[in-house]
Structures are given as C-alpha cells and as structure tokens.
Amino acid sequence: MRLVTTTATLGQELTMARGDGRYAKLLASRAKVELLLIDDGGMVTCNTGNQRDLLEVLEDR
C-alpha cells in the first residue's frame, strides 16, 4: 500500500487521532505502509506536538 500526504494533513490526522484515542492504531497503520510520500517536505510550520508526531512516524519506518 502507498500513501501520499502532506505534512499538514498528516499532522492533523495524528492530532485528531491523539484526541479520540486512535493514535497508536494510526501510527501502526502508517508503519505498515510500503511507501509513504510526504509531498511538501515540511514547507509548513509545525508546532512541537506535530513535530514529535512526525518523528514518531519516521522512526517507525
């Protein structure tokens, strides 16, 4: 499975998942993706929480 997303979209998904209890499940599903393309390469400013979440996704890969 392949996934193309932006930093902003990925950050929003992770923030919402953290809020409703799906965070671990979302991280696990992202770790199983064969190819993860983050299209904008971080062109948007991320807050500390989003930076930490993005690093979690990258570390799992």
Would you kindly provide a written description of the structure presented here, covering whatever features stand out?
The protein is an alpha+beta fold and 61 residues long. It has one domain. Helix content is 59%, strand content 13%. Strands 1-2 form a two-stranded parallel sheet. Helix 1 packs across helix 3. The longest helix is centred in the N-terminal third of the chain and has 14 residues. It is globular, with a radius of gyration of 11 Å. The mean pLDDT is 88.
Question: Which secondary-structure class do the elements indicate?
Answer: alpha+beta
Q: Helix fraction? A: 55-70%
Q: Beta-strand level of the residues, as a percent range?
A: 5-15%
Q: How many distinct helices?
A: 3
Count of discrete structural domains: 1
Question: In whole angstroms, how far apart are the ends?
Answer: 14 Å
Round the Cα radius of gyration to an integer and report it. 11 Å
DSSP strand count: 2
Uncertain runs are none
Strand order of the largest sheet: 1-2
Largest sheet: 2 strands, parallel
Give the rounded overall mean pLDDT.
Answer: 88
